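Data deposition worksheet. Section B asks for the primary sequence of the deposited chain exactly as it was used as input, without tags or linkers unless they were present during the calculation. Section C holds the resulting structure in token form. Section D is free text for depositor observations; keep each observation to a single sentence. Incomplete worksheets are returned to the depositor.
Section A, Depositor: J.P.
Section B:
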Amino acid sequence: MKILTLSCWSNSIHFRLFNKADFALLALGRVERVGIGDSYLIYILPGKKRQIIYVDYCDHRNALSLILTTLTGAQQGVMASEEEIVAVGHRVAHGGEHFRNSAIIDDQTFATIRNLQRLAPLHISYNVAGIEAGRELFPDIPHIAIFDTAFHQTISEHAFIYALPYEWYEQYALRRYGFHGHAHLYLSRRAAALLGKHPAECNLVTIYLDRGVSVCAIRNGISIDTSMGMTPLEGAVMGTRSGDIDPGIVTFEMHRGNLSAREMDSILNQKSGLLGITGKHYDRRRLVQEALSGNERCALALKIETYRLKKYIGSYCAAVGPLDAVVFSHGSGNDDWYVRQLTMEGMDVFGMRLDVEKNKSSALCDQEAIVSTADSPTSIYIIPSDEQLAFAEDVASILSEGCIDHVRHAYTFSQPGYVPNICIDVRDPHD
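Section C:
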């Protein structure tokens, strides 16, 4: 029996196929240029060379059909029939205040997800398209929604309410929600295991570092604050998103440049961040290479990004109390070391001492490691995030128990002796 997990976005579908019994990863990949044309599937079997399958065009339904055809193919398939899939887990960008945990997608749940498009118009419509395609192709098996915001529903009111007219929250639920929830869940549970502690005994700051970036303050195993807000635009500097800025800049520039709300939204989400500063780069690997080669604009972009991360870590130390560890995900490849080094410079005052040589070691690529010094009061970890494993475990728990409580659930990856899946590079070779 198999579990399929899906993350459906505007122009891509990411998938993983797990064995339900032991959560062994059987296959993974993604379809790119969905809805654009010249689409292609990057298909990977663990331990084997990736394959790329080209098609002229596919929408979300066609893309999912392509994935299923490949998974059951005579040469590259890993199952005899689609009937081996017993459930599908769908990543959903926003759960609002309605969903504190993953949930079965019945008609009422699906209607609620549709209504949440007002809170995440850039993402939910594509999540809905994926759910519709999945339910059409698999009408007789359970479909589970895994909400990006659910892990952060433990945040207290004083941390999620904005200093805006209170009726905006009462009437429209405008508040901090946070995102990348299952990534922070995975990082926190793995850190607890490495520390030899129960998750409820751990105080952490976790940093999810990819094209999107978020920081989470975790006290006693639960999220108490996070950098992203009502939307994924708030917080740290990201690949193409601005992160925190003076809101007055938005109205100033809209008046000055006669920009519409749609145009300003596009600038803040797609033309800002590292790309906005450098004018051409948002890939952190390229930025590090350029900065180390003397490109001053790229060096500035990295200093701005890591200064913001440094401030978040410091402020979350004040919110959480004494930390057991700071945890970095591993999202950008071999050049992550430079981002960590810049971020942790001067953090000795908080009891965080980075071992510079260990941090820089290429042997650390794509594996868990501790990169703090032996005498550092606070540990510093690198942990490749495997949020889709957390998706699959939520699905399995709901199938067996009818529900999932991510705060109390004993995930396999939080157990002593768990051996992580080998981190497999699914980056696009066309990038």
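Section D:
The chain has a mean pLDDT of 94.
The chain has 14 helices and 14 strands.
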